[in-house]
Amino acid sequence: MGRIGERFAELEAEGRKAFVAYVMAGDPDFDRSLEVVRGLPAAGVDVIELGLPFTDPMADGPTIQLAGQRALAAGMTLKRTLALAREFRKGDRATPIVLMGYYNPIFSHGVDRFLRDAKAAGIDGLIVVDLPPEEDAELCLPALAQGIDFIRLATPTTDDARLPAVLRNTSGFVYYVSITGITGSAVAEAREVGPEVARIKAATDLPVVVGFGIRDPEAAKEIAGTADGCVVGSAIVARIADGEPAEDVLAYVAALAKGAHAA
Amino acid sequence: MDDLFNSFMAGPDEDGRFGQFGGRFVSETLMPLILELQRQYEIAKDDPEFWAEMDALWADYVGRPSPMYRADRLTERLGGATIYMKRDELNHTGAHKINNVLGQILLARRMGKTRIIAETGAGQHGVATATVCAKFGLQCVVYMGATDVERQSPNVFRMKLLGAEVIPVTSGRGTLKDAMNDALRDWVTNVRETFYCIGTVAGPHPYPAMVRDFQSVIGKEAKAQLMEKEGRLPDTIIAAIGGGSNAMGLFFPFLDDREVRIIGVEAGGHGVDQKMEHCASLTGGRPGVLHGNRTYLLQDDDGQILEGHSISAGLDYPGIGPEHSWLHDVGRAEYVAITDKEALEAFQLCCETEGIIPALEPCHALAHVMKIAPGLPASHIICMNMCGRGDKDIFTVARAFGFDMDGPVGRDAG
Fold this sequence. Notes:
Helix content of chain A is 46%, strand content 14%. Chain A is α/β, with parallel strands linked by helices. In chain A, helix 7 links the parallel strand 4 (125-128) and strand 5.
């Protein structure tokens, strides 16, 4: 079992919900980003989602898009993103890191070389937004063969007929996208999310965490309560965009984690 | 039977691939819609009623077939090959774009969709979409890069007159690529009632094949018209390429006529050797994944997408339709690049010799005709696609020629 599986097993044993935090690698620059990432576990983050900057993030709203632009402007690349993960790993062997991004930088790097480099950097899982099950041969299957989890997004448009195809090669956990839309836009409603999570859980033994549209500790608590955990991204990234120092960003992350863990 | 198995017209396969190109690289939210679109398109494609409706609209609303015109003075001036122009600039709305829009909107109506979104670069696809939406009483939202909104203001006003909402896109550099990103974001947000009418032979499967099929009316007509006028097929066919829909429409029916030389002309901007100062994906890019398909892209070493440059907003896109990438790699079509300067020279020559004010996009095709025609005999027939008219470009061209549009009428600023 990899770090992701171990982490969810621990959480289950403790009866706690998972709190997953997303930050863009290299936002606003390498050093300040590393400072935030290093502080995430102590702030209560169970799984780190590390954004891989891309010029054309089609599933993301302005907050994440601008974070990517800041990171790229500061010289971030795929190689430096992996370097950031490697630096983090020197001080933390337990917290899982999921790399989240788009396929082209990975394809450009070369899939086999990428998987080797990602594994060496201590990356545990991948979320690649523009690789649906129809394109599993591209990266999903090679990643699974290397022991890197491939975490799939399930969405409100994933109907019962399609769900088995979405779950088939998914590992680590299932990421339920609570809204139809882009990151940081509409607000997720727990009463709508609950039945959807139940539908997915009936079809898989994997943990289900919910993301998109969770903006504050109360929402984190409410949404995490409907599932095995929740993800917050844009709300954290917005504070980095405002130029808040790492300690203030991390204090806010701690509040979100507290909310999720109270569920 | 060998020919059947070696056809260049068999693609894409069931996964939407032309060789390694194409595919369905989209988020899960969109995937069920894309599969449904594919299913509905397969049904419509085999339904004679669907095509009867298309044919009637093409004839009475668009004005098809567009003429096949022998450009005698241009031929004489260049002193070589005989030059024909496929006059798709005479279509309603002034370009080839409406051929495809009609097909997609009829499909949207069959699917019960009430809201149409589109991206546009030069504004021709946006105008065509707004036009057909007005005709059928559908809500229309057009995403257009803020840079393009500025340089194509006449088309922005046209879209507004036609009742469309034009949303200027400020992300990135504010051109076609960014407009497509925001259209995809809109689609992912409003999936259930919205139909995304893509303007070129790119995007996730089935768009590249579907748009090609709708645009193939150009090549089918061209073939029949040249058979009638010349009793044979042309020796060379030439079209400009941004995403590549007018070119794919002309090329496709000729792909298995191996004696016909096929040339696609990309936008060379300030020159392909100048980094990022062009939009020639095939000449200056490498394979990557963007906007739902794998294709040749302008990108840096890290796989980040580069912004290109072209004087023509309609060619200002860092990618190209996946079928062109495949035709390039298998060698069935040749792809060349023409600079802004060469395109402007073609613009001037076309106005002067033929009394046709062309759009800057087909000027790229014409500029290549100017290069090769003089070295060919009169018996060599070239057919180029005059895919759009130049009304929208007069401000850009005036600037390039140093003509003061705001000054006293008819007076040269330079």
